[in-house]
Design goal:
Length: about 190
């Protein structure tokens, strides 16, 4: 298996290209740092869609709403991403845990086919990498009162969430995708 920083050795589990538009950048034409997270999120969503999954909101057999929330994100920025570039966002590796999924992802510079050979070495330039942990949670059906610091007035009602196991169907489909990606190498 490969990690997010050594993904040039093995093919990614999934990859897709995105165009950089003005709304992704700061005034200097460089992609705003938080938008790296947006591209990583879009890539995960596109992969779930390709697998035929709605990986965000699922209903359990008893009708409870289950979904994923990001519980951890570790990013490493390597090089700037600029306005009008095309980037290749990848899922390099996925680890399935009982109540979470760990994604190792990376963003690479995508160079068009009509550039000279000198520039094509830039095509695999690592721009940023991440380890994202998404936790599977379930909304409870009864709201709880949240009390203010002085415990005198309730300030709001919220529907609490609790961690749960990754649904078996989702776990099975992701495991099959991981195995299918690994089998050509073996």
């Amino acid at each position: 298996m490969t990690t997010a920083t050594s993904n040039s050795i093995a093919a990614p589990l999934f990859s897709t290209n995105y165009h950089i538009y003005i709304n992704h950048t700061d005034a200097g034409g460089i992609v705003y740092h938080a938008n790296h997270l947006v591209f990583f999120e879009n890539c995960r969503r596109d992969w779930f869609t390709k697998l035929g999954l709605n990986g965000y909101f699922m209903h359990s057999d008893d009708g409870e709403l289950q979904h994923f929330v990001v519980s951890q994100a570790q990013l490493q920025y390597k090089k700037a991403i600029f306005l009008d570039e095309v980037i290749n966002v990848r899922i390099d590796k996925v680890e399935l845990k009982p109540a979470s999924i760990i994604f190792y992802q990376s963003i690479h510079r995508q160079v068009s086919a009509d550039v000279d050979e000198k520039s094509t070495s830039d095509a695999n330039t690592l721009l940023s990498s991440t380890k994202i942990v998404i936790a599977c949670v379930q909304n409870q059906t009864k709201p709880e009162q949240i009390e203010s610091a002085n415990n005198a007035d309730p300030v709001a009602s919220v529907v609490p969430i609790r961690p749960i196991r990754v649904p078996e169907n989702l776990h099975r489909i992701i495991k099959q995708a991981i195995l299918a990606q690994q089998s050509p190498e073996q």
